[in-house]
Amino acid sequence: MLNYDLYLSKFCSLSYGLQPKGKLIFKLATKFIIMKFKVLIFISCLLSASMLWGQSNEAFFNKADAFFKKHVDGGVDYTTISSSRSALDELLDLMKWAEVETFSKEETIAFWVNSYNLIVIDGVIDLYPISSVNAVSDFFTKKNHVVAREKLSLEQIEKQKLLKDHFDARYHFVLVCGAEGCPPLVDFAYMPDQLENQLEAQTRLALTQKHILDYDAGSNTLRLSQIFNWYKPDFTKGGQSLVGYVNSYIDEAIPSDARIKFMEYDWSLNQVGVAAKPLPKDGPSNIQKFTPSVLLGQKQFQIKWFNNLYTQNGFFDQKLKRQLDASRSNFLSSIFQFEIGALPRLNIGFDLYLRSVAYRTNPSSPLEVLKFQNDPQSRVALTSFGPKFKYAPFKLKGLSTQSTLLFPMAKNLQGFTDTENPSNSRPFIDHDGYQFFQQFFYDKVLNAQLSVFAEAGLWVKIDRRFKKDNTGVVSPLKGFLSYFPHRKITVYGMTEFAPDWGGAFYLQSGLGTKFQLTPQLEMELLYTNFWLGLNSGAGQTFNVGFRFLN
After folding, report:
1. Cα 441 to Cα 50, 53, 543, distances in angstroms
2. Most CB contacts within 10 A, which of 88, 121, 143, 315?
3. What angle do CA 233, 235, 240 make, to 5 degrees?
4. Which H helix or E strand runs over 233?
5. Rg of the Cα trace of the chain?
6. What are the pLDDT digits (tens) for 172-209?
7. Which residues, in sequence order, are bridge partners of residue 527?
């Protein structure tokens, strides 16, 4: 940095010998010259910066064009990019410092479109190998991308930087979300001087794809991508119909009275050049995407109703030997659960437990518990209710944790005897106190058809009156291996080991299956058997559950 005052003092020493009035004039003239010099330097810096920004701007579009040409061929070659990502990192750096406010309208639009597509690729590479971007709950909403000196999410780039500031429904055919259901990603960058022609050509190309538009003249049915459903207001702006919109870009017009159906979206990764077996053609369903560790997106919610029928006519003694019992004990737990995405990495919700028990002499049916009776050997009650919080404290993919606190809703849950009127006595139905569950979930996709899931937990039971002899801790460990024979079917095996710190444990294993009945509704069936234990029941469970996911 130049010290102008130092140079001024040295220069003014040249005025030695002049008269006082001459010295003053000399000093003022010198200051004027230096002030002009400062202005010239400032203008020069501005011009240099402008030239640099212009060069950087041109470099971004040229490098992006070369990148897409090298790595896009019907899909994206994520394998090659992940092995050497220097070119991608260079583009991300150019995007980070772009002076968008100096761009023309065409430069701005082209910049944001290319940036969106590059960020999607970068997001996949950060998690690669993955089977679907939709398996990452905050892939589109997480504000962790620095573009043009702002921290933005993909959703913000699409909705604010493009649709809000420079509206054009054709953006939906050039912004590619990393899935097979998207319009195809082109093998070139969108250029400011070619932007209008490129937007038009890509829109027309997208509408020739069967997964975007498919018309059956026989039934007069127009099948459209979910893009038209999700963004219908963008395509019908100004009172235009969806049929009218697509007719403006296709060669053979579709009748205006065509019946519209929306196709299920294929969220499988738009990848090429991989050796692993691809996902089924129709893409993953909710049962494959929303594994236990995956958090819901913001404002997304799910409702679960899970029913567990446990029945036993035997127990494991202190020597791990199974002993027969003279009676059959049956326990039904009907669990209602609600969960909603509150923040990008936080879900909140609640659990409500309805339990029914029936103790019967052998032989008897486990279905006795479904009579929902209240007598000395049977009982039904809403037993507990409480909040739960599911969050991802770390950035490790596939890891989340959940905390649940249950409060008792009925009295004497562990049973009581009325000596004066025995018919008023009631059996054990649940722990009589507070229950706290801390669970840690982790799952990993092995390939397109296999995944593993593990759960470690801590179950703390606290007596309602804080009695020490009715307080205990159980630390269950669970493992699941899931197989996806079809995009709407999951088959899994599970094993659980649950040691009770009071001197007991049990081991149970089972087989289950899940069915995707509709895009939002899932059904689950599970059977388990308690095959080893210490001072614990030797029973089996029959389970059926339903989940609605919006």
Report:
1. 51, 47, 21
2. 121
3. 95
4. helix 232-235
5. 34
6. 999 999 999 999 999 999 999 999 999 999 999 999 99
7. 511, 542
